[in-house]
Design goal:
The chain has 368 residues and is an alpha/beta fold. Helix content is 32%, strand content 24%. It has 15 helices and 15 strands. A 6-stranded mixed β-sheet has the order 6-5-7-14-8-15. A hairpin with a 2-residue loop joins strand 2 and strand 3. Helix 8 crosses helix 15. The chain is globular, with a radius of gyration of 23 Å. The relative contact order is 0.14.
């Protein structure tokens, strides 16, 4: 139930076997007839509905909270739907809430990118607060979740912590593009980026390694990925190796490090033979640790693909989004030193269509 008095009905089916039976019930037909636009499949993650609710509401900023008032429990046995119980919830048991913008509060920012960029992104938010005159708070998701690095494809934290703006991965954006609005993406200074908001998945080895190409690694090597939901850390190399069965069949052993910087450490100390690294994370690591350039060697660069976007949550009012976007696009005018110190030239405006290259890759990879 929402504060404006409207109701939503969600039906959660435990397994695929129950789907056909539910589709034949009169309750199913009634639900479709009463509310066709609000009837859809959802996935619950840590007690949060992360996508469907916001994507189906025309103006989510009007809804302050969704509250469960009762749940009915059934089980599916021997082809029958069997009633098992009912739970009623107290008034204060909130299930999901959308931030309000009619009350004073800071804009909440977060980064789901490489942890070695957190200080830079925090400085960016400080500049934005100064330029826009708006209160802004940077949230450390890794610290809050006690994780080694925020999982780039798992954006439940945006909804759990009411995050308004985020630096996030391209695959995270396209998987939640109905709930997130791309504003800008950074452009790196290095010549290989050609002044465009693009990046690569770099295949790296130790500087003392005998391997000089991706083909040298086939069959007998240990390969580090940060995680399977990462675009540069797994999905891009998996796509490029699709004719060989993908990453898992190309290398002898796969190790999940959970963070690009951890993958770099594993390559440096010899725990793995090679790794797939976000080229931006690699570039920032070399600026933070100049000595690492003598320890790590790039033997292949896969790409380019559109740079990870800086996004706004759909509930952020348009005027606020435009103000933040304008300030980001103009950052290089007054903050060129801050950008250059971290290897960036500027931020440029991006739209949803800029990420069609990633969509095409994922679609072709799925068919391969």
């Amino acid at each position: 139930m929402c504060r404006d008095g409207s109701f939503f009905n969600y039906v959660f089916l435990e397994n695929e076997a129950a789907v056909g039976h539910w589709a034949g019930l009169r309750a199913h037909a009634s639900a479709i007839q009463i509310s066709p636009l609000y009837y859809a499949n959802v996935r619950i993650n840590h007690a949060v509905i992360p996508t469907t609710l916001l994507s189906l509401i025309d103006n989510p900023s009007k809804i302050q909270c969704l509250q469960i008032i009762r749940t009915k429990y059934f089980k599916y046995e021997a082809g029958q739907l069997v009633w098992t119980g009912l739970r009623r919830y107290a008034v204060d048991e909130l299930f999901y809430s959308i931030p309000r913008f009619d009350e004073p509060r800071p804009l909440l920012f977060a980064s789901f990118l490489g942890c070695n960029g957190f200080d830079f992104y925090s400085k960016i938010t400080q500049v934005l607060a100064k330029e826009t005159g708006m209160p802004i708070k940077m949230i450390d998701i890794a610290e809050m979740t006690k994780d080694i690095s925020p999982r780039p494809h798992d954006l439940a934290s945006i909804y759990q912590h009411k995050i308004d703006f985020a630096f996030t991965c391209g695959i995270s954006y396209i998987s939640s593009s109905r709930n997130l609005i791309p504003l800008v993406a950074p452009v790196r200074l290095e010549a290989r980026y050609d002044g465009k908001p693009t990046y690569f998945a770099d295949i790296v080895v130790s500087s003392t390694s005998p391997y000089t190409s991706l083909s040298d690694l086939k069959g007998t090597t240990t390969f580090a990925i940060n995680e399977r939901g990462s675009l540069s850390g797994y999905l891009i190399p998996n796509y490029h190796l699709r004719d060989h069965g993908g990453v898992d069949l190309y290398f002898e052993r796969i190790v999940e490090s959970r963070a690009h910087v951890k993958s770099l450490e594993m390559v440096e100390d010899g725990r793995v033979d090679a790794a797939a690294i976000d080229s931006v994370v690699l570039g920032m690591d070399r600026q933070i640790r100049p000595e690492s350039e003598n320890r790590i060697r790039v033997i292949a660069s896969l790409g380019p693909y559109t740079m990870p976007p800086f996004v706004a949550s759909a509930w952020v009012p348009s005027a606020v989004r435009k103000m933040i976007r304008r300030a980001m696009v103009n950052l290089h005018v007054a903050e060129s030193d801050l950008l250059a110190e971290n290897g960036f030239a500027k931020f440029v405006q991006v739209e949803d269509s800029n990420y069609d290259d990633i969509r095409r890759m994922m679609g072709q990879g799925a068919r391969a």
